[in-house]
Design brief:
Helices cover about 30% and strands about 30% of the residues. It has a five-stranded parallel β-sheet, with helices on both faces. A five-stranded antiparallel β-sheet has the order 10-9-8-12-11, with helices on one face. β11 and β12 form a beta hairpin. α2 packs across α3. It is elongated and about 55 Å long.
């Protein structure tokens, strides 16, 4: 399994440095060195770095963690809350946090939290999922199989026009319907056939449903056959241009 990019969000200097050292010590984690000390910084750095894992203090000076997650509108990263207050435990698991570290916690307790995260990652092993795509129940070469917990969704891949993130879900827009599945775009990038391409943080498109590619001096835009337009973000621009 690849190393997980981990971001620390903590406003207390001593706690932040202690947690950073724990992350650096773990062989499966890579610390994003630019830790966030406020909610405003957390919003910016989560968007900039797109971490796999976030250790997040709940009560920051400007926002609490739940306000941050609401402002982000759903993220793909796994969340481990770090707090001195036990009152938030139920709410933390309502937003599907992987774990809840109550201060002061030991390194051994930290390791257990990380083990829960890596267990979830390994359960989404890409080789197994790719093999699953070859399931004989898929009666057409155009059928794509999308896992969701214990359920598998069989979709007509040729009819999928584009997919956009919607909180913790992916919304598949087909020619005649929509399908909401609890899966991240990051996971989908590794599952979908080569004719699907991610163009920004929130959108994956099917190249066979693209009508036009519009280049301007400062932007690049895709026009879809159904009339919708999507802008291509700078970090995906070169990949999209090469792909198309």
């Amino acid at each position: 399994m690849k190393m997980l990019q981990a971001l620390v969000v903590e406003d207390e200097g001593l706690s932040r440095r202690r947690l950073e050292k724990m992350v650096q010590k773990h062989k499966e984690l890579n610390l994003i060195s630019d830790s966030a000390k406020t909610g405003v910084e957390a919003l910016r750095k989560i968007k900039n770095y797109d971490p796999d894992l976030i250790f997040m203090d709940i009560e920051l000076k400007d926002f609490n963690a739940f306000e941050i997650l609401t402002k982000l509108g759903g993220i793909e990263a796994k969340i481990v809350f770090v707090t001195a207050f036990s009152d938030y435990a139920v709410r933390a698991f309502d937003v599907e946090a992987v774990d809840y570290l109550l201060k002061p916690f030991t390194y051994e307790r930290f390791l257990k939290a990380v083990a829960k995260v890596t267990a979830r990652e390994k359960s989404m092993d890409l080789d197994k999922i790719k093999n699953f795509l070859m399931d004989p129940r898929a009666d057409s070469k155009d059928t794509i199989v999308i896992p969701e917990g214990n359920t598998s969704h069989f979709l007509d891949g040729s009819a999928v026009q584009y997919i956009f993130s919607q909180g913790y879900y992916a919304n598949f827009v087909l020619t005649s319907q929509k399908k909401l599945v609890r899966i991240s775009l990051k996971a989908l990038e590794n599952l979908l056939p080569s004719n699907f391409l991610r163009i920004n943080k929130s959108i994956i498109v099917n190249r066979f449903h693209i009508k036009e590619l519009v280049k301007n001096k400062s932007s690049l835009k895709i026009k879809m056959k159904d009339g919708n337009d999507f802008y291509i973000s700078d970090i995906y621009r070169s990949k999209v241009e090469a792909f198309l």
